[in-house]
Amino acid sequence: RRITSPITRHSDVVWQENPSRILKYRASTLHLYGWVPFLIWRNVKATVFGNYRLYLQSIVLVSWMVVIHLTGLGAPTRDIQAFVRIFSTQYMGAVFNVGTVVVFILGLFVTLVINRWWAMRAVYAKLASHTVDVVTVISNVIRHPDNRDDPRVKRARTELIRFLNLGHLLVLTQADGQSRHFYKNQMLETLYNKIIGKFPSRKVPKIGEDSSNTWQKAARDISFLDLNAEGLVNVDEWQHIVDSEKRGMPRYVLAYHWAQAMLHELQAKGWIYNSAQSLPAMLNKLSTIVDSGSAIFTYINSQLPYPYVHLVSLTVHSYLWILATYLGALLYGGFHETPGFVQLAPGDISSTTAAGILADAVVDPTNVSGLLVAAPEKINGYVFTVVFTYFFMILAIVVFQGLVDMHTLLDNPFGRHCAKFPLRAQITELMNTCRSLIQTGDTMPECFQDVFQSDDSIGEAGEGGVEQPQRKDPAVRPERKPALAKKHQRTTSVDFTSPMVRSTE
Question: In which residue ranges is the amino acid composition biased (Polar residues) (predicted)?
């Protein structure tokens, strides 16, 4: 039985359904017009605009900016203008200089996050690729020395491949469920499900969803009944796995241990062809698989240092508060100085705007003929300026908060977000490959079967050629296997090649 992973194809992206994941996207379309926010609504949940934290922070910062814009926090206008003047200069502490430092710090931080994610991706790729490699070797070298058609050979191959798939799936279920280590507040959890849980990036599609279907669940929610229904583990084996976990051993280790022990037993019976080379190769691959599984959990549990991440987050959010305060003060008080030269008649200082400037200065008014004054310029009434000031503030929040949230997304690539690893597609592809190799491991194309014929059979065929193998009648349809039961039931024995053909308790 081939496991299918339903997908929806679009011109710009390929989506996996139940659970929703991005499988592929067209980079040219993304950079041409796909970058425009909310233009392609179905893709919003995969962008920073699908994160509710972005909107919460935007509301808080923009509200703070509006309060300063409208009230100035009750500070004198000249005080606000002095503040704007100081933070508009090129001196240390100016908004531009602070922004430059923040960009540098954030760039280094995001680089570390991406490098960590890439390393975890490489380890997982090694885990999956080496599993396929070992399965390919098993389907060729496990054979009876005297009877190639011995049914026990296929059984031995099936059990080995079953343990490899079980170990692979147990790695992913544990990696995907790492967030369960944190305490959950029931009140906050209820509020989250009612409000935030309905957000585009969190909402689970209900179309075609079936709770009894193993492959419509998140990897963290796959249980014993699901594994049992797919012919991956029986009751006795699962009990051993649970007992070992209670002693402190990860679940997946025992599955790979069984595979290694079985290889040694097959070698002792002489059922591994060319065992001097094949057995070490398979054992080395198995060791690499176990090492990759351990590396995945090492990466997940060895996060970036908390003090460093805290300082980066503090720096970025402090800069956004400074920027919101500065822009709000700018809209309230305007520019402090708009230089202009004013001609003055001797002794006419008191009637000019320069009177306030010279009030505390030691200047002889009779000798003043002109002044370069700084009259404040209000910009509250400039609609274009006000609108785009708020727009650029929101844009800054999106960019800086979005980059910080990359850490939230990539800290553990095994999770529920639609941009994380598409585990369903990868698991089903591996299991389909393994089951196909079990069924077709001994078959060869008819075009070169004559190469392996014995001399006697060649003589019987005559000098003109070889006997042609019988072809199957296309009108005869193969017998269908029983359909999948709607509900998973515990079974005492499992069949990995035909998981639905089994007896139930």
Answer: 491-505
Q: Is residue 350 part of a domain?
A: yes
DSSP 174-218: HHHTGGGGS---HHHHHHHHHTGGGSTTTPPP-TT--TT-GGGS-
> Which percentage of the chain shows pLDDT scores above 70?
70
Q: How far apart are the first and last CA of the chain?
A: 22
Encoded tokens for 232 = 């991956």
Of 81, 109, 110, 86, give the one whose Cα is nearest residue 98. Answer: 86
Judge whether 40 lies within some domain. no
β-bridge pairing 7-9 and 13-16:
antiparallel
Rounded Cα distance between 389 and 10, Å, is 37
CA 72/CA 327 separation, integer angstroms? 11
> Residue 200: is the preceding peptide bond cis (ω within 30°)?
no
pLDDT score of 83: 82
Q: Show the tokens assigned to 498.
A: 């035909």
Cβ contact 371:357 at 8 Å: yes
Answer yes or no: is pLDDT of 180 > 80. no
For 57, the 3-state DSSP assignment is helix
Q: At what angle do helices 95-141 and 275-301 cross, to 10 degrees?
A: 150
464 touches 481 (CB < 8 A): no
Full 3-state SS string of 283-338: HHHHHHHHHHHHHHHHHHHCCCCHHHHHHHHHHHHHHHHHHHHHHHHHHHHCECCC
Q: Pull the structure tokens for residue 150.
A: 């011995």
| Structural domain containing residue 351 | 339-375
In a domain, 455, yes or no: no
Mean pLDDT of 330-335: 80
pLDDT for the residue numbered 204: 47
Give the rounded distance of the alpha carbon of 274 from its chain centre: 42
**How many independent structural domains does the chain possess?**
1
Q: Pull the structure tokens for residue 486.
A: 């709607």
Are the beta carbons of 333 and 80 closer than 8 angstroms? yes
In a domain, 366, yes or no: yes
pLDDT digits (tens, 9 = 90+) for 438-458: 888 777 777 766 666 665 555
Structure-block tokens of residue 346: 């001797």
- Could you tell me the pLDDT band of residue 282, with boundaries at 50, 70 and 90? very high
List alpha helices for 359-454, DSSP H: 383-410, 423-440
Please indicate whether residue 394 or residue 101 has the higher confidence score (pLDDT). Answer: 394
Work out the percent of the chain whose per-residue pLDDT is above 90: 32
- Angle among Cα 499, 501, 505 to the nearest 5 degrees reads 95
Dihedral sign from CA coordinates of 182, 188, 194, 196: negative
* Cβ–Cβ under 8 Å, residues 13 and 25: yes
Give the DSSP H or E segment for 268. Answer: helix 251-269
Model-wide pTM > 0.85: no
